[in-house]
Design brief:
Blueprint lengths: L13 H8 L3 H13 L10 E5 L5 H9 L4 E6 L2 H11 L4 E6 L2 H4 L9 E7 L10 H12 E12 L8 H14 L6 H8 L7 H11 L5 E6 L2 E7 L3
Parallel strand pairs: 1-2, 1-4, 2-3, 4-5
Antiparallel strand pairs: 5-7, 6-7
The structure holds S-adenosylmethionine.
Length: about 230
């Protein structure tokens, strides 16, 4: 997927909107980093860690706070999101910045099997399941060392079809109760054109990409966090 084809998210007000939109958003980065810091390879001092789709830098700030020894690669195809993340991280941690998709990173030999861990928070959900989800996951697997883990957080389909309506009504209720008010142009890239899949489909995609079965480690309404381990 070329950089120009990526849906544009406006970095202004992004974090406020996400906190009001996504249940538990304030804890996602903290949880994800804590899990990766306890993983078999990324627990080692000075590990190389990939933040795929770093957006405005929430996971990076948390990673620098919890693991100042990590060597982070912050990757996002959006120049605006990267600029905001760079501004927030200024002078902190060991961070290499890269304007790229994960798929393009995988074409770079120097990145093959390089990372001891990776985070992908709210990225896979925006890709259609027409080969693009598999390409994204395969690229992540290829960039990880065998045995390394990926923390994947994404919007998922409800586990029971009979729950779908209730969960989406509850999500709207959550947004109202959080006081969410944002122009449609800012909300649309975050709420429309998403492509959530169910657990069975995710399992088959991650297995095909080179990971073991996904282990769910948290859930808030439709947002679920998984640990995936690259096969040896
Ligand atoms: C909803 S934002 C999530 C940002 C951040 N991870 C967070 O949780 O706040 C999704 C980000 O993924 C980026 N993105 C979209 N497609 C991508 C791809 N193929 N590879 C890497 N990043 C991608 C977008 O530019 C955007 O910044």
């Amino acid at each position: 997927m070329g950089v120009s084809a990526v849906p544009q998210v406006n970095p202004a007000g992004y974090d406020r909107i996400q906190r009001q939109l996504i249940p538990g958003y304030s804890s996602l980065a903290r949880l994800g980093v804590a899990l990766l810091a306890a993983s078999p390879l990324a627990s080692a001092p000075g590990s190389e860690v990939l933040v795929a789709g770093c957006g405005t830098g929430g996971e990076l700030l948390e990673a620098v706070a919890q693991r100042p020894d990590w060597h982070l690669t912050a990757l996002d195809p959006s120049a605006d999101m990267l600029a905001e993340a760079q501004h927030r991280l200024e002078g902190q941690g060991h961070v290499s910045w890269r304007q790229s998709t994960v798929e393009a990173l995988a074409e770079d030999q120097a990145s093959t099997a390089r990372f001891g861990g990776a985070l992908s928070v709210l990225v896979l959900q925006s890709l259609p399941d027409d080969g693009r989800k598999l390409a994204f996951l395969s690229a992540l697997a290829a960039s990880l060392q065998p045995g390394a883990q990926l923390v994947l957080v994404d919007l998922m389909q409800a586990s029971l079809p009979s729950l779908e309506q209730q969960v989406s009504t509850a999500w709207l209720g959550f947004q109202r109760a959080s006081g969410l008010q944002a122009p449609e142009a800012e909300l649309a890239p975050l709420t429309q054109g998403l492509h959530p899949i169910g657990l069975a489909r995710l399992t088959s995609l991650v297995n095909a990409a080179g990971f073991g079965d996904p282990a769910r480690i948290f859930q808030a309404l439709g947002f679920e966090g998984f640990l995936l381990q690259r096969r040896n």
